[in-house]
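Q: Is it fine to ask for two folds in a single conversation?
A: Yes, each is treated on its own. Send the first.
Q: Here.
A: Result:
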Amino acid sequence: MSLTLRTISREQHLAYIQSLPAASHCQVPAWADVKTEWRSESLGWFDRDEQLVGVGLVLYRQLPKIKRYLAYLPEGPVINWYAPNLDDWLRPMLQHLRNQGAFSVKMGPPVVIRRWDAQAIKAGIQDPEVKRLRDIEATHIEPRAFEVSDRLRKMGWQQGEDGGAGFGDVQPRYVFQVPLANRSLDDVLKGFNQLWRRNIKKAEKAGVEVVQGGYEDLAEWQRLYEITAVRDRFRPRPLSYFQRMWTVLNNEDPNRMRLYFARHNGVNLSAATMLVVGGHVWYSYGASDNIGREVRPSNAMQWRMLRDAYAMGATVYDLRGISDSLDENDHLFGLIQFKVGTGGEAVEYIGEWDFPLNKLLHKALDIYMSRR
């Protein structure tokens, strides 16, 4: 296949994304408006008939004092990753980005390499010899993903660190997903473990109500989110970030972003944001108060969000990032423990890859990032 690459309009980019069953929310044109600290560009791949056959959202971050950029394609580009001529897709992209002043390119191919079902993970947690997901035999392995990795290495791409240390935003390599395609809601609920099902019933009996919010409720979201940040010791994003996210994403598609609250006796106890692109639905950000945990608002809220995703015709409900650690002493262990209760599966992508266009500047960036 003879391919050409050039800058395309946001309209062309969005129309292509809308023609697909799903794509990452990090690859829709409006994601560029969420990330205001980066310059952006929409790229399009065309076949010899001038048909658009792939797109990519590139975010450019300038180095201090010089006009050189890190070019980043989060969870992209959206191309045929299994094409035998992968070089014909990526070589013109590298040349174009070099011409734009990029000194290094980072991308996150949306290619799944392994899956572990809930049963396998639970068995791994109970085994004292098992410390990481990779210590467990995968339930499903995608052989073509290994071919993609081999091709990238041969082209000179370098695999990023497992932890994903990078320049700015870095997407998770491991996520947790609940498959919804060809399943009844009853089947999905039966897949939940006993504790989850009990907690959903407990919330129902206690009268926990789950409602959708709007732009005007983002200040209340921020209140719960900042309580969570103090408790879990992370630096929260400002309210303006979520206001911008809501505005730009829903301007692009009125159903792109949703906000949910779980409340008891009129008091909001937990909240979450949801993102939708085609048949892929993400639980994006979560927040909860330090009070009212006994009525299980988070379980009630997840169950409502999952049911809404199902009603939209989603094929997957994505609970986003997890650590691959199965060590009970690891501070992130609780995250996988909570998510595995949904009966879904842990999913490993092939990770983020770097291509140094200027080895000296790329190395300098690596040193800078390691000292942060």
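Q: Second one now.
A: Result:
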Amino acid sequence: MRNRIEKFGLIGIGLIAGVALSLHFSASAEKDANQPLPIEEMRAFADVFGKIKSDYVEPVSDKKLMTEAINGMLNGLDPHSAYLEGDAFKELQISTQGEFGGLGIEVGMEDGLVKVISPIEDTPAYHAGIKSGDLILKLDDTLVKGLTLNDAVKKMRGKPGSKITLTVLRKSEPKPLTIVITRAVIKTQSVKSKLIEPGYGFVRVTQFQEHTGENLAKAIEALYKQSNGEMHGLVLDLRNDPGGLLNGAVGVAAAFLPKDTLVVYTEGRTEDAKMNLTTAPENYLRGDKDDYLKNLPASVKSVPMVVLVNGGSASASEIVAGALQDHKRALIMGTQTFGKGSVQTILPLSNNSAIKLTTARYYTPNGRSIQAKGIVPDIISEDPATAAQDNAFRLREADLSHHLSNDKQTEDQPETKPATSAKDAPKPKEGNAAKPEIVEFGAKNDFQLNQAMNLLKGMHILQGKKP
């Protein structure tokens, strides 16, 4: 099982320019080599290859043509499958450790342009005002059109302290924005916590990395200590968390669920793609590590909980929210999540390259597919000051070209649409292309957090009145 969890530690939503790609690495699964090649299609491919070699206006190397053909095969499948050459392995490995250079944005490809999935909290891109849904037109003087996603990410990375100018298209702006960002070494702190007031704790997971489960356990223990061992309520904040390692998601869910409780299961075409992952330690620990959850207070399994989510909550975040919702362990509050419910596996090739291939869909314990739908909160809560703008510009999986369909979608389960459309968004003032207001999650003026606290306090009062 441990080898299989390592294979499917790949559940992120795209390449990240300077922030953790939500992937881990795996050995290549054995493939059925007995499938016959499609002769007619291969002949057409060879004909096109030959015509380009003989008639194209400039000479083109065989390597370039084959690389572009492979890119085309994978890019045409879904937004998350990709071809990885050379140094991509090293970059991916660095990204899961939580410290590396870059801008701090998670990106995908849309109509030949780089599309921002989400800026990562406390990074240069976040502070510069990059927004979810922004389309990056130029990187310095280089047009993005024609670049692969890997090439674009490489250009966004660079020496810490160096600057890069992004030309950005944004729906609310009549003209492209020019945003200068200073690259930095990104040190992502995946778990943040604080005691809001006696008996009420706040834990924020910004993304799921190698040590997220351990850091969560330490945060919970610290909160209990600060509250003299008694907690009345806990808020788990997964807003704008783009996902990460699968074992991290299982570990976070396991902190709040009973032992051997199903967290997520996956379905694919191969046997290795079919897994049932429970809260058993072997499903979230790597190697011979001690179980970091074994010393948690027993009441953490039953303390009233609210989980905050929004359209930037994706992949691993949706696994955790879906598991806690299905088992009625917590109330989910906020807005509909991103809807990234597929699993990517890194499959090494013989030429020192690899493919990142979508190999499975994942499902919540009750059999719900999150793909292109997301998690619908038990309680819809939007900040009135930013709701219109957030709904207008929020990017979701269903907005991506070639996105994988939801195989569980039925007519009586229509996809939830945003309550507000782009035409309802506030119009910018003339000549104002300033960066948007940045909302600090966990601050005193955090509207959704205050709503969650009100709910927890009400639940505590009601519990006290029970005979």
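Q: Anything structural to flag on that second result?
A: Two points. The first strand starts at residue 15 and ends at 17. The first helix runs from residue 2 to 7.
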